Amino acid sequence: MKILVTNDDGIDAEGLQCLVEVLAKNAECYVVAPDQGRSCCSHGVTTGSSLDVVSRAGNQWTVSGTPADCVRVGLLYLNLKPDWVVSGVNHGGNLGVDILYSGTAAGAREASLFGIPSVAISQYMRRDVERDWGLNARRAETVFQKILDRERPGAGFWNVNLPALPTEVTSLEFPVSLCEPESQSLSYSIEEIEENREIAGKSLVEADPTALRTVLYKSNYQARPRVPGSDVDLCFGGHATVSWLQSGLGGERIYRAKSTLDQR
To answer: Average pLDDT over the chain, rounded to whole?
Structure first.
């Protein structure tokens, strides 16, 4: 089997390189990935300027573009002919509405538009749980093996999120559940940075309406809303979550199934 691997964290990301090391034991792997991090780039593509493609050892190439660009370059320029495209393992979850912003998901989605089976794999992360990317890669490969032979209901791709399991849990036995992405968005705010909040006792706007304003995006990922049985709820509860997303002009329709991948 031939696998094209991409991501949105950049070619040197541990999630990608550890995954390639694991997959290469049973498959011929090619890597076409961004030359730097492109997180949250969604399904952007580069059409108005050129792309730099640089060859590396071990069937790897960097592209000065997005994950979707990387898939296009791999298929149309490098003429790779993969049986599967795997995007990830992303450094952070791509759950629920996050899928719309995700460059990782876009890499898999772009492959699906070419009719190639594909999967986006992301690692949900918690600050209080140490990350072992080698172990995470083996967990990713475990889930990948479970979906290899499953029926794909139309043109689309699989979206996988791995749970943040405690450090002492090293087993590859963990619940893997088919589910729907959470429909409620992560709550967030846009706030002025602290040092610019007041100037001479006045707000920045009052002091000078034309002044440069510096703001930050703030959110609490762990406190995001969730419906029982959604990907957010299950992944936060220790499950690897798997969702089928059908791509097309009508948007993404979610394949509804309430079962585990071990049920046929």
So the answer is: 89
Q: Who has greater pLDDT, 13 or 217?
A: 13
Give the three-state DSSP class for 260. Answer: strand
User: What is the pLDDT confidence band of residue 152, given thresholds at 50, 70 and 90?
Assistant: confident
| pLDDT score, position 70 | 98
Packed helices 14-23 and 133-147: angle between N→C axes, nearest 10 degrees: 50
Q: What is the 3-state secondary structure (H, E, C) of 184-224?
A: CCCCEEEEECHHHCEECCEEHHHHCCCCCCCEEEEECHHHC
Largest pairwise CA distance in the chain: 67
- Smallest Cα–Cα separation from 135: which of 6, 14, 51, 8? 14
| H/E stretch holding 246 | strand 240-246
Residue 134: C-alpha distances to residues 47, 70, 176, 184 (Å): 36, 24, 19, 32
Residue range 14-59, pLDDT digits in tens: 999 999 999 999 999 999 999 999 998 999 999 999 999 999 999 9
* Spatial contact of 89 and 10, defined as CB atoms under 8 Å apart: no
pLDDT confidence of residue 253: 44
Tell me if 93 sits within 8 A of 20, measured CB to CB: no
Domains of the chain: 2-184+224-260 (3.40.1210.10), 188-220 (no CATH)
CA distances from 104 to 148, 153, 168, 170 (A): 19, 21, 28, 25
Write out the DSSP string of 21-84.
HHHTTTSEEEEEEESS--TT-TT----SS---EEEETTTEEEESS-HHHHHHIIIIIS----SE
Rounded CA separation 131/14 (Å):
10
Strands 253-254 vs 176-178: parallel, antiparallel or unpaired: unpaired
